[in-house]
User: Which sequence fits this backbone?
């Protein structure tokens, strides 16, 4: 009997934030997460069963062979290596979005690490090393001294994203910080502004 993929959601859209913002992408959301961030926009505790054939059929409809594997928290999900293997066989470049609490699976081309307050902003050493981009969500009371732990000359991208539910205050804080630390960038969730998934 074929083992089914348990996926939260699969859809075609544009990447809305970070380095790859604006790129057409296949999004693969995996269920379950180790955190419960107040601003999370995904009901990640549910999933649908996908056969390999159904997943391949849907994925190959994406003309731009770029996929974003996200969650929930994809690096803690046993489905992730299977999804990566299928996407690689189909010729996809793969980005992953992670809170950084676990090691990064093999086969990922671009790694966005977004450390979270609920995990005291801890990052697994392997995730830290593999990160292509660090992106922090800035909410009211965010401790900017936390960012001092980064060597911003290491070639990675560093960005700050305002909490969408508190944009005005969060953007004000970010702009003040970037004025003094111009290596950091503002990252807006453009998909929410233009109301796409």
Assistant:
């Amino acid at each position: 009997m074929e083992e089914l993929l348990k996926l939260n959601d699969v859809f075609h859209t544009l990447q809305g934030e970070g380095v790859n913002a604006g790129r057409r992408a296949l999004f693969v959301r995996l269920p379950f997460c180790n955190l419960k961030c107040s601003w999370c926009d995904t009901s990640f505790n549910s999933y649908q069963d996908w056969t390999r054939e159904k997943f391949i059929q849907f994925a190959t409809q994406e003309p731009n062979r770029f996929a974003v594997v996200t969650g929930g928290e994809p690096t803690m999900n046993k489905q992730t290596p299977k999804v990566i293997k299928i996407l690689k066989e189909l010729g996809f470049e793969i980005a992953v979005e992670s809170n950084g609490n676990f090691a990064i699976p093999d086969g990922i081309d671009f790694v966005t690490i977004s450390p979270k307050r609920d995990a005291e902003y801890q990052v697994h050493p392997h995730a830290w090393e593999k990160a292509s981009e660090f992106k922090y969500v800035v909410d009211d009371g965010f401790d900017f001294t936390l960012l001092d732990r980064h060597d911003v000359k290491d070639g990675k991208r560093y960005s700050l994203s305002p909490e969408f539910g508190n944009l005005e205050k969060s953007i004000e804080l970010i702009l003040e910080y970037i004025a003094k630390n111009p290596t950091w960038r503002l990252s807006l969730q453009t998909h929410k502004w233009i109301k796409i998934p």
